[in-house]
Amino acid sequence: MDPHLLAAAAPITSTSGGEALTFWIIAPIAVLGALGMVLAKNAVHGALLLVANLFCVAVCYLLQDAPFLGFVQIVVYTGAIMVLFLFVLMLIGVDSTESLVETLRGQRLAATVLGLGFAGLLVFPLGKVIKGQPAAGVADVNKAGGGNIHAIARLLFTDYVFAFEAVSALLVIAAVGAMILTHRERTGPKPSQRETLRRRIESGAVLTPVPGPGVYARADSADQRPALPGGSNGLVGGAPSELGPGGGAAGGRGDDAGAGDAGDGKAPSGPVPATGPGAAGGAAPVGAGKGSGL
After folding, report:
1. What is the pLDDT of residue 154?
2. Pick from 56, 119, 141, 249: CA 20 to 30 A from residue 277's CA?
3. Per-residue pLDDT tens for 42-74?
4. φ, ψ (nearest 5 deg) of residue 240
5. Considering the entire predicted model, what is its pTM?
C-alpha cells in the first residue's frame, strides 16, 4: 500500500449499514468456497467452488469503491479463465481416483514450511508498514490518484513495473511449459494420405462413408436404391429395376420377396420368408395367393 496515498487519505470513522451487512454475508461465503475448493476431491466441484469464491471477492471489491478490480475479477477470472478450465475438464474427462504415492519424498512437509514462510513474509512486513497509519477509504485514495483506473495504472507501470514484467514472463513460461508437457513425441514419420489409403485398401476396410442407421444401401449413389426388406438392392443386371405392369410390385424383375405383379395369382420366384402364426407349419407365405397386393 502506497504511504503517500495513505497520508493523503482521510480517516474513516463509520461504515454504512448496507455495506457492512453485505460484507458479512459475502465474506463467509468466500471463505467457505475457498476451503471447499481446497478440500474437494472432484476437480469440477473444486472449480465451481472457486468460481463462487472469485465472485464473492469481486463483490467485495465493488463494496470498497473499486469498480475496475471488481469487473476485471468477474470478466477475466470468473468469466474467462475458470470457464476455460471447466471446458478443458469436461473435454478431457475427470479421473476421480487419487494417488497416495508421493513422487517426491517430503513434498508435503516442504509445502507446509514454504506456505508458512510466505504467509509470514506477507503478514509481518505489511503490519509493520501500516502500523500507526490511519484507516483510509478507497474512495479517498482514488481521488488522490486521479481515479481508480488511473491510480492502478500509475502504480502498476511505475512503482511495480519490475513485478509486472516478472509476472508476464512467468505466464509466458507457464504457457510454453504446458505446450511442452502436452506434446507427444512421434515414434515414426507422419504417414501421408497416399500411405493411409494404401493401408486401408490392403486391410480391406470400406473406403466410402458408411450409410446412416436404417439404410441398407452399399453405396451412396443416386442411381441405386436402398436394400429392400428381402435383402436385395432392387437391381437387375447393374441397372435399377422398374415397377411391374400392375404397378403394385416393389420390383417386377428383381429378386425381392414381394416380386411379381399384383393380382396375377403367381407365387414369387426364389425363397420367400414365411410370416404369420402358421409359418413354422409350412403355411403359404404372404403374397403367394391371388390379390395379395404387396
Report:
1. 83
2. 249
3. 888 888 899 999 999 999 988 888 888 889 899
4. -65, 140
5. 0.46
